[in-house]
Amino acid sequence: MIRILALVAALVCAVPAIAQPLPANLDKANAIVIDTTKGRIVIKLRTDIAPQHAERIKLLAREGYYNNVPFHRVIEGFMAQTGDGKNFNGTGGSKHPNLPAEFSNVPYKRGIVGMARTSDPNSANSQFFIMFAEGASLNGKYTVIGEVVSGMDVVDRIKRGEPVVDPDKMVKVQVASDIK
After folding, report:
1. What is the pLDDT of residue 15?
2. Where is the signal peptide (predicted)?
3. What average pLDDT does the structure give for the chain?
4. What is the pTM of this model?
5. Which residue of 24, 72, 122, 163 is surrounded by the most CB atoms within 10 Å?
6. Sign of the dihedral defined by the CA atoms of residues 127, 26, 141, 103, in that order
């Protein structure tokens, strides 16, 4: 009986995250929807400041590259990083070439989504991170690709660690306009 109640509770918690409507006035062609093990996150992509990076995120989402990918590096008070659909641990990138930097003057603050890279400014590929708080040290040094418009409460519940033990995952990532 306890197992059945736990299963019902898990299903009840999961359904609202998947069934919830997208934010009003969202440009669905330039937004991604991330259904995670903790709930749904919606990110508005900043095609105005990082068009190549936004297109890459949409391409990888459409290829299914991000599905079941863990949040492998989650630092309290800083950010949650994901996007390694190759090795699942932060050491891999996609089959596509690295992207040239598209730095802007948009400040890193809570909810901003940035593209991860190595020390080479032109090495962003597939990995990205969501800011928990202000990160002024990143300003002008990492490409801002978007901002969370719904689901920061979900981001706040992602399991912490560097690396994370038994991490939360992006179960399914879709371009909002592709959702049927």
Report:
1. 43
2. 1-19
3. 92
4. 0.89
5. 72
6. positive
Give the number of other CB atoms < 10 A from CB of residue 92: 14
**Cα distances (angstroms) measured from residue 154 to each of 40, 41, 149, 168:** 7, 7, 12, 11
Cα 148 from Cα 3, distance rounded (Å): 35
Q: Where are the beta strands (DSSP E) in 29-119?
A: 31-36, 40-45, 69-70, 73-75, 79-82, 112-115
Helix (H) or strand (E) holding 153: helix 152-156
Q: Per-residue confidence at 49, pLDDT binned at 50, 70, 90?
A: very high
Token pair 């059945």 in the structure block, residue: 4
> Edge-to-edge, what's the strand order for the sheet holding 112-115?
69-70, 169-175, 31-36, 40-45, 144-150, 112-115, 128-131, 79-82, 73-75
3-state secondary structure of 73: strand
Cα-based angle 38, 44, 121 (whole degrees, multiple of 5)? 95
Q: Which CATH architecture has domain 31-175?
A: Beta Barrel (2.40)
pLDDT by residue (tens digit) across 79-128?
Answer: 999 999 999 999 999 999 999 999 999 999 999 999 999 999 999 999 99
Domain regions of the chain by residue span:
31-175
pLDDT tens-digit map of 53-63? 999 999 999 99
Least Cα distance to 131 among 51, 53, 43, 61 occurs for 43
